[in-house]
Structures are given as structure tokens and as C-alpha cells.
Design goal:
This protein has about 250 residues and is mostly helical. It has nine helices and no strands.
């Protein structure tokens, strides 16, 4: 398996570099394939040897080779995070269709997280196609079953829509579409696990921000990152969590 891990890790780094392009350009409505990567400050093209994931950042000492402006450490962090999640998917699911789909989802989760943290939006260009793919690939690859995927999408989207109506805007439309997408992939039982984990994580972080950063109780914080972290935990450990909980795992579908 060692060659698989080496290739997967390197591939994860390369895709992570592309994810940085997506994170920067998608909220601006720019193409993610053209023009080639360039410095966001001076506009100079980034040469291939200046665009090697992580390594180029280290050798350039975190600065643009042309103008010397500082490059955010988020760039190599995204690359390494994506590689680590790819390796985790390979370890958990092997070189299978499920493993490949989990890798793709981890990359999507990274893009959603960093866009939502910075811009507080979840682009429809990600979530809407994701709903369709979830309903198709969930039954085929995750073996949720068609009915289970449909119920997961309806349950997740319906709960969040109800929260949005009751709270009069307390839940954003992007979160509703995101949870609908996740429900299609995971099915109704695992989407409940995802919502629970995301809510707990969001509450813990929110309380910490109020205590240590003085954030007000009504200050909005993006919920998308907590949902995708909850979904990632569910993908890797959801079945174990359900079995640990007990009877809930024996409900139909």
C-alpha cells in the first residue's frame, strides 16, 4: 500500500493547490481555469517551479518572487489539509470508488469552509450540483439506497428551512442547500448525526468566542464550516457512532 499512499498524498497536495484557486476566485465570479495563477498583489504570473505545493512556499519564504509581498500561510495549510484528508480516506476506505468519492467530498468541504469563513456565503455553483450528485452517487457509492438519500435530502433541507422560517432569517439559504446536498449523500440517519455534530461544534466555538473574544450573542457566525466538519466526522465514524448509540442504528433504511 505504500505506493498508493505516496501517490495519494502527492495528488492531494496538487489538488489542494487548485483548491486555493477555487477559494479565491469563486466568490469573485472568476473562472477557476483561466487565466493561469498569478500574484493577487502585483499580477505577475506564477511560474511552474514557483507553484509546487508547500515546497515553493518554503523556498520563497512565504513571499511573491516578483514583488516580495507576503503570501498567506493559508495556501500551504489548505494543500496539506487536503493531502491529509486524502490519506485518511485511503486508509479508511482503500483504493475504491467510495474512497475516491470521499476524497472529492473532502476537497469540496475545504472550499466551502474557507469561502464561508471569509465571505459568509456558500456558492450555489457548489451546493446545487451537489444536491443532484448526492442523490445519484449516495445510493451508488455510499449504498444508502435511493429512498434513504431522498429522505436525507428532504429531512435535512426541511429542518433547516423550518428553522429559517421560525427564526426569520436565522438560517441562511446557503446552509439549507448545503444540508440538502449532504442529506443526499449520507441518508436520513447520518444527516441527523451530521446536524447534531455540527450544532455541538458550533455551540462550543460560539461560546468560546463570547468568553475569550467578547463576541456578542447575536453576532452572526458562518454555520457551513461546522456542518462540513460534522459531515466529515460522520463519513469516517458515523456508523460507529450509530452502533454506539444503540437502537437508533436498527431503524429501517
Amino acid at each position: 500500500m505504500l505506493p498508493f499512499y505516496v501517490i495519494t498524498g502527492a495528488f492531494g497536495l496538487l489538488i489542494g493547490s487548485f483548491l486555493n484557486v477555487c477559494i479565491y476566485r469563486i466568490p469573485l465570479g472568476k473562472s477557476i481555469v483561466y487565466p493561469p495563477s498569478s500574484c493577487t498583489d502585483c499580477g505577475s504570473k506564477i511560474r511552474p517551479w514557483q507553484n509546487i505545493p508547500v515546497i515553493s512556499y518554503v523556498f520563497l519564504k512565504g513571499r511573491c518572487a516578483s514583488c516580495g509581498v507576503s503570501i498567506s500561510p493559508i495556501y500551504p495549510a489548505v494543500e496539506m489539509l487536503n493531502a491529509l484528508l486524502y490519506l485518511a480516506a485511503l486508509y479508511a476506505f482503500g483504493p475504491t470508488a467510495r474512497g475516491a468519492l470521499v476524497m472529492a467530498l473532502m476537497s469540496v468541504f475545504i472550499v466551502i469552509t474557507f469561502i464561508d469563513l471569509k465571505h459568509q456565503i456558500i456558492p450555489d455553483g457548489i451546493s446545487l450540483p451537489g444536491i443532484v450528485l448526492g442523490l445519484v452517487l449516495g445510493p451508488l457509492v455510499f449504498e444508502t439506497g435511493i429512498l434513504n438519500s431522498i429522505l436525507g435530502a428532504l429531512l435535512g433541507g426541511g429542518l433547516f428551512l423550518l428553522i429559517a422560517v421560525v427564526s426569520r432569517g436565522g438560517m441562511g439559504g446557503g446552509d439549507i442547500k448545503l444540508i440538502t446536498m449532504l442529506g443526499g449523500f449520507l441518508g436520513w440517519k447520518l444527516i441527523l448525526v451530521t446536524i447534531f455534530l455540527g450544532s455541538v461544534l458550533g455551540a462550543v466555538v460560539g461560546i468560546a468566542l463570547m468568553v475569550f473574544r467578547g463576541m456578542k450573542r447575536k453576532t452572526p457566525i458562518p454555520f457551513g464550516p461546522f456542518l462540513v466538519v460534522g459531515a466529515a466526522i460522520t463519513i469516517f465514524f458515523g456508523a460507529d457512532l450509530l452502533n454506539w448509540y444503540g437502537g437508533f442504528s436498527y431503524l429501517p433504511y
